[in-house]
Design goal:
This protein is mostly beta strands. It is built from three helices and nine strands, in the order E-E-E-H-E-H-E-E-E-E-E-H.
Length: about 170
Amino acid sequence: MSETIQDGKFVELTYKVTDKKSGYVLTRVEFPLGYVHGHNEILAPSVHKALEGKSVGDVIEVPIDGKQIFGPRDESLVFTDHVENVPEAYRQIGTSILMESDKGQTRSFLVTRVDEKTLTVDGNNPLCGREVVFTLEILTVRDATDEETRTGEAIIVGANIDPSLMRPV
């Protein structure tokens, strides 16, 4: 009998996030992502709940409403400026820019549009206001080691999420 995902189990999986409306893949994990279930909630709570009871080889789809997780889009977090006012290193779609407000608060902005004259950044989470589908494939389920339980993750895990895939639709 194969082990099932429950608290204290080490889980490795891959996933992709697809925009429900357009079918565009927004992001994907290319290498297995490992975590200890119940100790390191690295995905949305509804995704973790849907994983419970699943086992190796299962592929599940979990719809997520980005509005519930990140709230509604806030258009006041979208800024356009003359491209010459922006350092050249930031002039590529998908580039993340950390900005600080007058009050010292920081927020990450994503470059979403660049043309000959202007550059647009968006401080909304890329999933904000979208309905998306997480498609997850479970690769490993086993008892977590003591060290994994302490850290909440595998000691050697590789995950590669390409931020350029997080373009708005």
